[in-house]
Design a protein that fits this description.
The protein is an alpha/beta fold. It is built from seven helices and 13 strands. The strands form three sheets. The chain has a six-stranded mixed beta sheet with strand order 6-5-7-8-11-12. Strands 2-1-3-4 form a four-stranded parallel beta sheet, with helices on both faces. Strand 7, helix 7 (160-169) and strand 8 (176-179) form a beta-alpha-beta unit.
Length: 226
């Protein structure tokens, strides 16, 4: 604590996303749809950006979009970081406001699209979520920019791993990748380039159907520097 205020800082995964843009002074756009554009979370992101010397702007949908031209707004940034929360609500609202097309165009034009939890799951075909009820269930209508399933919270929520594997075995979800908390997957286009972690010992996995069984293979996961 300094001056009675908690100092905020970007975590290594977010810092790494910024470097992937290749910009000398990257501009970050934070999207908090999955948590209802919570103003406290947004304020903490802006504060962390200020501490890191990175300008942080917001794309909000509550109570109405905060910009007239979302595509131009997104393209004016180097990295989009999407926060966690309800991926079902996020996807519904994005489609309602045309952000599915906006982010698809931004992706094709080289904007780095990233995020955590729902903010990771949204870019894939689907995965597991507690957005609908306290019990986990599949979500299958992700944006599909990455044509894989995505298993988030693979080590921190005990029901995630077996359900993710069962849904792949039943062909509800396609083959995909799973991440323990604190790990991330880096894609160039739809090609997986590497798995990275901000916490020692954390792991990412390839999870795929092989005949009648599901094979889980640990990926080489590089530890990022703080």
């Amino acid at each position: 604590m300094r001056g009675g205020r908690t100092e905020m800082a970007f975590a290594p995964l977010l810092k790494y996303a910024l470097t992937l843009s290749g910009a000398s002074k990257p501009k970050l756009l934070y999207v908090g749809t999955a948590m209802g554009d919570d103003s406290a979370i947004a304020a903490r992101m802006i504060e962390a950006g200020r501490a890191a010397g990175v300008p942080v702007d917001l794309l909000k949908l509550y109570p109405m979009p905060n910009v007239d031209d979302p595509l131009a707004w997104v393209l004016d940034h180097d990295v989009v970081w999407v926060g966690g929360g309800s991926v079902a609500n996020l996807l519904a609202l994005w489609r309602l406001h045309g952000l599915d097309d906006v982010f698809t165009q931004a992706w094709h034009q080289g904007v780095v699209l990233a995020g955590v939890s729902a903010g990771s799951l949204c870019w894939h075909n689907g995965g597991t979520t507690d957005s609908f009820t306290p019990q986990l269930s599949p979500v299958t209508n992700g944006l599909g920019l990455l044509p894989y399933s995505n298993g988030v919270h693979y080590d921190s929520e005990e029901r995630r791993r077996p359900l993710f594997q069962r849904l792949i075995a039943e062909r509800v979800l396609p083959d995909g990748y799973a991440t323990e908390d604190g790990t991330g997957l880096v894609f160039h286009g739809t090609q997986l380039v590497e798995a990275v972690a901000e916490i020692p010992g954390k792991q990412a996995y390839s999870v795929r159907l092989d005949g009648d069984s599901v094979e889980e293979e640990p990926l080489a996961t590089r530890l990022l520097q703080a």
